[in-house]
Design a protein that fits this description.
single chain; 677 residues; alpha/beta; Immunoglobulin-like; nine-stranded mixed β-sheet; six-stranded mixed β-sheet; flat; transmembrane; VWA domain-containing protein; Class_I_gatase-like; membrane; transmembrane helix
Length: 677
């Protein structure tokens, strides 16, 4: 309580006393012994009212006991079921839920994981891939300031992500891995990782790198065969021993016909081999007859140029060539797309040639762009001439409809450098990104697409795109999302196809262990994206003729459908817009790829390493009771008594109002009872 509040309370006490004395002693017509009671009641009433007006604050301290957290993470991948441990895992889960000593000692939270970590509500062991390291990254954030030991139910077989036995070294909580798989090691041949490009070119050969390994101590031999259908395209003998447990095979496969070609790698089983499913692996390659050649023209050196080449060529269908404006003149017809980076006066001859050839182009501007020249060389945009620069960020336009804009959080990307000044769009254009300056989103375009009489263009008004790609990697641990965004820009700018009211975006083939998602865009008769349409897809398995129908779901500026539940095979599909008479057809292939069935044993070594790294302990799933007992008595995990201190204003004390009302009522009743007015 402050000194000012204390003085006000003393003053209130004096005023209340003065009022009581004045009314019942100084001005009273009749003075009786009851006046002392009346004065006392009036004093407390007036003092209470004044205290409410002053509204002093007081501290309220409460105590509570906080139990330590216990995180139970259960592997929900298909390998658990394949190894025959799904029922044991479910029984262990029930044991933890029903253990009263454990629930009294811990605040228990249940999770499951496969490709990612989610809250555990049920177990189906249907996840197609396993990323055990995601458990540690998720729990690092979730339990940052808590004591939270982790029980990890897993077979230790991870199919993607960082090596979890190493990522656990930086994990601050104690981990208790529970082995959910067979620990006996059998002789086994394994076809491991297969490295192959997604695309190959007709009448060429493409390399395939196959990693094979052997679990065992004998000297054994096998034959590796690669088939396309019933045709053997490569085979060779391989020998393994206790000292030579792995072999890397590189084969050159001919690409003789255009389209998606599926291949099967098979390692001939050895005698008494139990798990033969991991002796086989499938892959696919799309054979094409040409690629998109992109010319990147600039008369300066900038990190954006290297980034663009990396990003564009992440799609094997594209190749990028650098050239100065002088070198580019006379060669433009050799390329499907020309990218102009920060044009200056030296670009004039090249612009003249682009105009005469009617070629598409993509223009990226920045502080070093000469807008005096560029405003005259093209007719799509006009930029106000200033001598100032500014930093801007991007905000996606939800109404952008030229193509599917990737779900990137552009507003969180680092700012780009751009020339200050108003931009006027002089032709039909679709704004993909608006400029954001500080916290204010403007209507000034940052990225636009144009179409002038069938000649397409893309304009990006900012330099520093290399920072966006780097930030995308920091956010997602992959360049894929940003590279897909650039690839969509290149695909639009390089294409001369007429605009269609129904556009589809899908791959020619998908692997069975990943997601199978297709996208569609539908436009009304004015070519404005229509988010009220009803799109359906009819998918037919070419081998079984089984039909699957499902609707598309609206996702921002596109429609999406997830077909990940389809079994591997060749499919034909038709997308229809209800009540519009519009339809588009296509086909795709889902390549068999059951990576979770490649394992025969639990990886006890990796799980044991996690326990050592985190000062935990390794348990077999048959020893659940022992694990529960050890957690309950572990002195590192004891409840902690904590206190909270709240500053409460007196006006929140409702009982004070009740007391004041009661005092006034008593005083009124006594006065009336004794005949006073």
């Amino acid at each position: 309580m402050t000194s000012t509040t204390l003085l006000l309370l003393i003053g209130a006490c004096i005023i209340a006393l003065a009022v009581a004395i004045f009314q019942y002693f100084y001005k009273a017509a009749y003075k009786t012994k009851r006046n002392k009671v009346y004065a006392l009641l009036r004093f407390f009433t007036v003092f209470g009212l004044l205290v409410l007006l002053i509204n002093p604050k007081y501290k309220q301290e409460t105590y509570y006991t906080e139990k330590p957290s216990l995180a139970i993470a259960v592997d929900n991948s298909a390998s658990i079921q394949y190894l025959g441990y799904e029922e044991k895992v479910k029984e262990a889960w029930v044991r933890f839920r029903e253990s009263k000593p454990l629930n009294d000692a811990f605040d228990i939270q249940y999770f499951k994981f496969g490709t990612q970590v989610t809250t555990l509500d049920s177990l189906d062991f249907a996840e197609r891939q396993t990323n055990i390291s995601s458990v540690f990254s998720s729990f690092t954030t979730l339990y940052r300031n808590e004591v939270a030991p982790v029980i990890l139910f897993s077979d230790g077989n991870q199919t993607f992500g960082e090596a979890f036995e190493y990522s656990s070294k930086n994990f601050k909580q104690n981990v208790y891995p529970v082995i959910t798989g067979d620990t006996i090691v059998y002789d086994d041949l394994i076809v491991g990782q297969v490295n192959v490009n997604r695309y190959a070119y007709i009448n060429n050969t493409f390399p395939v790198e196959v990693f094979t390994s052997y679990n065992g101590t004998r000297e054994v031999s096998s034959r590796l065969t690669i088939r396309s259908g019933n045709t053997v395209v490569h085979q060779e003998n391989i020998a393994f021993s206790d000292q030579n447990k792995s072999q890397v095979i590189t084969a050159l496969i001919p690409a003789n016909s255009v389209g998606v070609r599926q291949y099967t790698i098979n390692l001939q089983p050895i005698e008494n081999e139990i798990n033969k499913k991991n002796n086989t692996k499938n892959f696919a390659v799309e054979v094409i007859d040409q690629k998109t050649n992109v010319l990147l023209v600039s008369d300066m050196v900038h990190p954006d140029l290297g980034m663009l080449k990396k990003s564009i060529e992440s799609n094997r269908l594209r190749t990028v060539t650098f050239a100065t404006p002088n070198e580019a003149v006379g060669k433009l017809n050799d390329y499907q797309l020309v990218i102009l980076y920060q044009p200056t006066g030296s670009f004039q001859p090249m612009y003249n040639e682009l105009e005469s050839l009617g070629k598409n182009s993509m223009t990226i501007t920045g502080p070093k762009t000469d807008w005096n020249i560029l405003n005259r060389l093209q007719t799509a945009v006009f930029h106000e001439i200033t001598t100032q620069d500014e930093e801007v960020q991007g905000v996606a336009n939800p109404n952008f409809s030229t193509f599917v804009l990737n779900d990137l959080d552009f507003s969180d990307f680092p700012p780009l450098q751009t020339s200050f000044g108003d931009i006027t769009l002089k032709t039909e254009a679709d704004v993909a990104l608006y400029k954001k300056i500080g916290t204010i989103t403007t209507e000034a375009p940052l990225l636009v697409t144009t179409d002038q009489n069938g000649r397409r263009g893309v304009y990006f008004f900012g330099e520093g795109l290399w920072r966006w790609r780097a930030q995308s990697f920091v956010d997602t641990r992959s360049f894929e999302a940003f590279d897909n965004f650039i690839d969509n820009l290149i695909q639009y700018a390089a294409s001369n196809k007429r605009k269609s009211r129904l556009n589809l975006d899908y791959d020619s083939f998908y692997y069975g262990n990943g997601s199978v998602k297709l996208y569609a865009q539908y436009f009304d008769k004015n070519y404005v994206f229509d988010n009220r349409a009803a799109l359906t897809m009819r998918v037919v398995n070419k081998a079984t003729e089984k039909v699957y129908e499902a609707p598309f779901l609206l996702q921002r500026n596109a429609y999406e459908i997830d077909l990940s539940n389809l079994v591997p095979g060749d499919y034909a599909f038709t997308v229809t817009v209800q009540d519009q008479g519009l339809a588009r057809s296509g086909s795709f292939t889902i390549v068999p790829f059951e990576v979770e069935q490649q394992f025969l044993n639990a990886d006890v070594t990796a799980l044991s390493q996690v326990a050592t790294n985190t000062d935990g302990a390794l348990y077999d799933i048959s020893n659940i009771d022992q694990l529960i007992a050890s957690l309950v008595v572990d002195t590192r995990y004891k409840p902690v008594q904590k206190s909270t201190e709240n500053v409460v204003p007196l006006i929140d004390w409702k009982w004070l109002l009740a007391v004041l009302s009661l005092l006034l009522a008593i005083e009124w009743f006594m006065r009336k009872y004794n005949g006073l007015t």
